Amino acid sequence: MNRFCLMGWGLGALAATLTSTFLGGEPGFAQSQPLPLSSETASPALPIAPPGSEASFPESYVLGPGDRIRIDIFNIPEFSGPENGVHEVLVDGTLTLPLAGTVAVQGLTLAEAQRALAASYAPLLTRPPQLTVTLLSARPVRVVVAGEVNRPGTYTINLETEASGSGGGTGAGRQWPTLTQLIQEAGGITQQANIKDIQVRRPQLQGDAVITTSLWDLIRTGDISQDIRLRDGDTIVIPKAVAISPEESVAVSSANFSPAEMPVQVVGEVASPGGVTLPANATLNQAILAAGGFENSRAQTSTVKLVRLNPDGSVDQRTIDVNLAAAANDTTNPILRPNDVVIVDRNIAAAAGDTLGLLLRPFTSLTTVLRILGF
Asked: pTM value?
């Protein structure tokens, strides 16, 4: 097909449009209204809900390998619509189009891709093309989360979304994943997480854009704009807090981006020694009570030992003065971490009794043997 054929198509389409206008009919072209080339936005079929972040943070969706788009060129059905205008961005970030050839679109917004495609078709047509680009389905969202989460790493979230109908109208589907959803997927934050200064880094052609968001504002004031919606290629960094007050720990533990439960070991003189499962950010008193409380006749109820395995492999051990009536605090009722071990020692009477029993056990055994032999 050559340039003269395209010129013929353009003239034929123009004549058909004028004829249908004078005769009261409707021209036969794609029913979606094309955007002018100067427009800055395109109407995507995929529901893209912009998060409420700073205006400088880029929110426009950028194309990449795996995205499926639909191209509509006004009055040129041969390159348009659900039959001829649906294309997928290739691994190298390009589109292969009839006559126009290869067009690079990776990293472009829909509006930028629209202008690039219009520029590629313009030399082949007798007049500037009126062209629209619609996002039919998005590639999987692949993001990285690092720092104070229980399972840092790379996560891939598939968006099974397709435009409804052949006209490329709005399609019902999943929205972009949010920051809190990703943290939940990563096992929740650790107890050392600084949720007031979380960084989201988004790659752009001109370099990464970075925004700092606060999930503390989300849970304290209900500021939903802090729960940023993520895009493919985002990196989330959750730093370690210098110090967290017990009041903040208790408030954060009720949020849905904190782990729901944590394992703790309570051993020694309690009613039910062994492993217990507690709510996140539970306190020492909660662990003792979850194990059935002190064994009153044997337990040392004034102090317990708290053993903690640190991430670097070191072990901390401290003696805690127990106060079952105290609220969460660092001195008498500290907040526990996963896999902490609480040791409840014997009191003086129980220790003395156990020692005496150990010393008398050989004589008891001898007496039993003599009784069996009939002496």
From this structure: 0.63
